[in-house]
């Protein structure tokens, strides 16, 4: 149940609203812990104006937010919609990375028809939409022939959901295939046809530098950006991040390059870590951390308490000028048994795991403005006059209130109107999971 009700009018005011200042363009006012108070005039589905509190036209219908927060809709820049919700069909027996890899592979080979992938992806989109997400990038397993199936489904859903969630897709391809001209050429062609990006999970391989250079060259020749899974391991001997940055600089690649996870960076000695971070900054890479999944998989050993959090050097990267964000990653599959594609949960847990607090002044950027910028959509994740009134309203007034509860009573607005926030029932998946 929502904490309040929006006015039944095409033009109204949200009075006494608390806004994360880092998400607001074209308005300034006194801020405390990065939070400012304003009145928002909503008209014809847009944010008509952002005003000092108490200055909105008194004749307009209004909802007094009583200092409750108003956020822009959220950005989830690293997900796996094609893997989502297979847990009940194919679990991870020991919670390990290899257990995840093997069981996803087995489930993909046995079950990932177009209907199966579509059903689970659409369930995930319904969930994310109800929580207030507006932009999602998903990685799609692209081991032939799966890439043809999943990208076709993705394109259909991208069209069907275009007025609700903007979608991007990355071909998560086996890097060994890059040197196979026929296989790699087909993956690149399918990816380009569907407007995707090239990706993969880097690890130490024979001819690794040649593989990277071939991948970068193919991306450049086809006008594609790159988004890689990088160093998702506790093994400090694995540091492909450094090679990726060097390759981008060496090749002069002009497209965008995003790297996710980068866990082993936190296992390096200070000098090597600093050298790598400086290279990442020089190369203009963007980094997305996946704190919930990383804590689930990393440093998991039977009968032993984990010794580290599994996440990358987030603060050090940000301090070096690297664009940094957080995202959901996997949802109810062998790589992460939990999750609901809720950006509020991702933010709340990231604050705790990554210590994004003390201060919290700009923390909201990691699920709003920064990932939107990384994904090339600076029109999303912001509150500004003239933008669509795609907003999330919370009863929480201050950070402690916001971060202490799941905010299940939030109101999600799209084009100035409240949406139906009922979440899809897990029973809807029974036909494909319980057969």
Automatic annotation (TrEMBL):
CDD domains: Bact_CD (cd01293)
Keyword Hydrolase included in the entry's annotation: yes
Swiss-Prot/TrEMBL keywords: Hydrolase
Top-rank EC class of the record's enzyme: hydrolase
Domain of life: Bacteria
GO molecular function: cytosine deaminase activity
Start and end residues of each Amidohydrolase domain: 204-408
EC number(s) stated in the UniProt entry for this protein: 3.5.4.1
SUPFAM superfamilies assigned to the protein according to its UniProt record, in alphabetical order: Composite domain of metallo-dependent hydrolases (SSF51338), Metallo-dependent hydrolases (SSF51556)
UniProt cross-references to InterPro entries, sorted A to Z: Amidohydro_3, Metal-dep_hydrolase_composite, Metal_Hydrolase, Metallo-hydrolase_Enzymes
Protein name: Cytosine deaminase
Keyword Hydrolase assigned: yes
Pfam families listed in its UniProt record: Amidohydro_3
